[in-house]
Amino acid sequence: MDPAVIQSVSQDDDFRAVVDALCLASDRFMAGRPGHRGKQVLPSREAISAIVDDLRAVLFPGHFGGSDVAPAALRYVVGARLDQARHALREQVRRGLSYTCDHDGAADDDCHACEQQAALVTGKVVAQLPRIRALLDTDVQAAYDGDPAAKFVDETLFCYPGVTAITAYRIAHELYVLSVPLIPRIIAELAHSATGIDIHPGAEIGEGFFIDHGTGVVIGETCSIGRNVRLYQSVTLGARGFPSGADGHPLKGLPRHPVVEDDVVIYAGATILGRITIGRGATIGGNVWLTRSVPPETRLTQAQVRDDPSPEKPPAAEPG
Predict the structure, then answer these.
(1) What is the pLDDT of residues 143-169, one digit of tens each?
(2) What is the mean pLDDT of residues 193-206?
(3) Where are the domains of the chain?
(4) Model's pTM, two decimal places?
(5) CA 96, 101, 104, 107 torsion: positive or negative?
């Protein structure tokens, strides 16, 4: 036999072996997971990314989704884009719900309960869009008011990664509170990839929220953030530890992240860990490592924390 033919057959055998191994690995990975029924259709990151783009264009028509919207056509443009987003979101929510539904033996696409719940959830999210827009207006204004480099309010909306991240968060949070699996985290991670800002959709964030510069910011699942809070780059609002259950796995859903009250400013590089409270009007300096609560109207610097490292004592601080 021609050596070239022998080599080709051998390469085909190797290729098939790789395909078989990858398929087997996929089956093993999915075995025993919620929703694994052999034909599970998972949510699509690409479809969810397009939905977020559509919703952002609905929330801020003329800024996103085309800037040439004539006033006379605004109602039609918003309605058409929202209708597109609504139908696409309903399908992705259905897929997310199907992931944790046993279907009572029904096929994935035939679960009437998932269809009904997806329609209900989608309707609730759409109904909340005017409220989300009102919140985002305060976030955009906070970005403009909080940055002397901003020349126009529109500049913050077009250009600031913090505004992009908080827009995605406010959409994802609505789905999170409605207990939709997977979709909120996908939205959050798409924004994280685009901006470098990691906001868990479970966090509670009040109006007028501004992240300046943004890269490296982390906000954990059980954070509670009040009104008119400002963060700078590389701030972490994280957990100090992860209590484990009898099986040795971390317990889920316990409050473990900071509470940040109204009118707080946290400067670049600060790391704030655990279920502690940063009191109203406090200012936390750059690069502070903090694991204890701070009284209202406190100004806390890295030097003060370094000079008083004991976690049992209140931090040395100056009045605001």
Answers:
(1) 999 999 999 999 999 999 999 999 999
(2) 98
(3) 42-196, 216-320
(4) 0.86
(5) positive
